[in-house]
Specification:
By secondary structure, the protein is of the alpha+beta class. The protein contains eleven helices and twelve strands. The longest helix has 25 residues. The radius of gyration is 21 Å and the shape is globular. The structure holds adenosine-5'-diphosphate and magnesium ion.
Length: about 375
């Protein structure tokens, strides 16, 4: 891909670029815990968004994306969100400027092999690669955490998507052969070796995306808040579900709606599963890790209610195979992908069988990926 970017950039702009890239990610476990200040356990994947960039003497960003085969110009003296893919790039430049890091005009060529909109965070990949490109080009030395925060801010305030920091954080801090355990409150993290010679991670895309996503997301956030407020009356130190245990929730059961109870139950139990999954991985206890994945899916399906028919079919099909340790939805839900932990020597068999089973039940051809845990963003 590097050579392709270099050559295409030269063709388009008649000069040599610097080239940066940032990976997408998959979340192994810890779903809907980030905005409750809890734990997540993603890994950066060996799919990247690449950016070729060279400096201009004016304030114009010329941005081309091969994925959309489209060019757009943005004047950094007068930028405005356009509800367009270029917002992800311009937004990062704007936030950098606002935080005191001037950004010059630039010619930009983007290409990516992160699937778009599949829950593998092509959005963080394009933001983080843009941030590295702009800071590299303008000689700003910025630490990794600040880069992640600037990218999150760009997505929140410029793109208008109220995401947590997980995606950008792991796209910056990811490490080859490791998953990354992140405490979304303190932003302390731990790299945990993931030995894929023993167990393979297979991602299955259901190829559906139900529209409910964003309105339901906002509802869930409110329900969690309601739960926290109820618990707070007895335990004032609880400022997020992260601070609660099941016992606290049980104590306020009669004072809250049954739905709110189940939402909180998911978050509290998911934090426990995610914390446990570290020790499971560290000891190569894939049976336990698989059980935790299964528990996560069941909780997301029954208590948090963010699964859908297609995700459940994909997960059930995976679990019917005895060489699968565990399977669950990954990402926000209502469609998108499942993550499957499969005995290493059965990955091929799994891929063949799940395609047949899923198509039999839904009529849809799923897309499958096998990723390696990879390094975070870098200049090439
Ligand atoms: P996900 O992050 O799960 O892939 P999002 O909806 O958060 O899904 O982000 C996808 C959007 O990000 C795309 O619709 C597009 O606007 C932007 N994007 C991601 N990668 C690229 C790219 N290579 N070129 C242009 N835009 C991109
Ligand atoms: Mg995204």
């Amino acid at each position: 891909m590097k050579d392709k970017i270099f050559n295409e950039f030269r063709k388009m702009y008649s000069e040599n670029p610097r080239i940066f890239r940032a990976p997408g990610r998959v979340n192994l476990i810890g779903e809907h815990t980030d905005y409750n200040e809890g734990f997540v356990f993603p890994m950066a994947i060996d799919r990247y968004t690449y950016i070729g960039i060279s400096k201009r003497e004016d304030s114009i960003l010329n941005i081309y994306s091969a994925g959309f085969d489209e060019s757009i110009s943005v004047d950094l003296l007068n930028p405005e969100p356009k509800k367009h893919w270029s917002d992800y790039v311009a937004g990062v430049a704007v936030v950098l400027q606002n935080e005191g890091y001037p950004v010059s005009g630039a010619n930009i060529y983007i290409d990516s092999n992160v699937p778009l909109g599949a829950g593998l965070s092509s959005s963080a990949a394009i933001e983080v690669s843009s941030a590295l490109a702009f800071t590299g080009l303008n000689n700003h030395e910025i630490d990794k955490l600040t880069i992640a925060k600037i990218c999150q801010k760009a997505e929140n305030s410029y793109v208008g998507m109220n995401c947590g920091i997980m995606d950008q954080f792991v796209s910056v801090h990811g490490k080859k052969d490791n998953a990354l355990f992140l405490d979304c409150r303190s932003l302390n993290y731990e790299l945990v070796p993931l030995d894929i010679s023993k167990a393979g991670i297979v991602i299955c895309n259901t190829m559906v995306k139900h529209e409910l996503g964003s309105s339901e997301y906002n509802k869930r956030r409110k329900e969690c808040e309601t739960g926290v407020n109820a618990i707070k009356t007895k335990y004032p130190n609880v400022t997020a579900l992260r601070d609660a245990v099941m016992g606290y929730l049980e104590e306020v059961k009669n004072e809250i709606d049954e739905v709110v109870f189940r939402r909180c139950k998911h978050v509290i139990s998911e934090d426990e599963r995610t914390a446990l999954s570290i020790s499971a991985l560290k000891t190569n206890n894939f049976d336990l890790f698989g059980k935790l994945l299964n528990g996560s899916h069941d909780s997301l399906r029954d208590d948090y209610e963010v699964s859908c028919k297609e995700l459940d079919i994909m997960v059930d099909a995976a679990r019917s195979m005895d060489f699968v340790y565990g399977a669950r939805v990954t990402g926000g839900g209502f469609g998108g992908c499942t993550v499957n932990l499969v005995q290493h020597d059965s990955v091929e068999k799994f891929s063949k069988e799940i395609k047949i089973k899923y198509k039999e039940k839904t009529g849809i051809e799923p897309e499958l990926f096998s990723f390696l845990p990879s390094n975070g963003a870098e200049e090439l």
